[in-house]
Specification:
Length: 119
């Protein structure tokens, strides 16, 4: 049986979730119009972070990691395969909202950036 090199997948998943988890609240903070929006953003931010981390980790465990294993097992691990997956996932989740779809796509690209990066 052939051993599959999955790269540094555990740290890559954590980095992709954290980086996008920081970008989304910054986007809303920049786009807020008043101080009331900023004060309401703090409460929303705490709720968002809790839900975001749970959904992201479950998404990576249920969908992301098996797809990563399939790409590593049956392809040459080229970034184009990850771009194709990001495109398909973006289309599937677009009905859930642009920000959610965008977050998933950015997570995939950040994951691919770090998974086979030599340290």
């Amino acid at each position: 049986m052939r051993v599959v090199n999955l790269g540094n997948w555990d740290n890559s998943i954590i980095k992709s979730i954290l980086y996008v988890g920081i970008l989304i609240p910054l986007y809303y903070l920049i786009s807020s119009n008043s101080i009331n929006d900023v004060s309401g953003l703090l409460v929303t931010f705490l709720l968002f972070i809790g839900v975001y981390f749970v959904i992201s980790f479950l998404g990576w465990l249920i969908i992301g990691f098996p797809i990563h294993w399939i790409i590593c097992r049956f392809t040459n691990k080229h970034a184009g395969y990850y771009a194709l997956v990001a495109f398909i996932v973006g289309l599937l989740f677009y009905s859930a909202g642009f920000v959610f779809s965008f977050a998933v796509v950015i997570q995939i690209f950040i994951f691919r950036l770090y998974v086979f990066k030599k340290t």
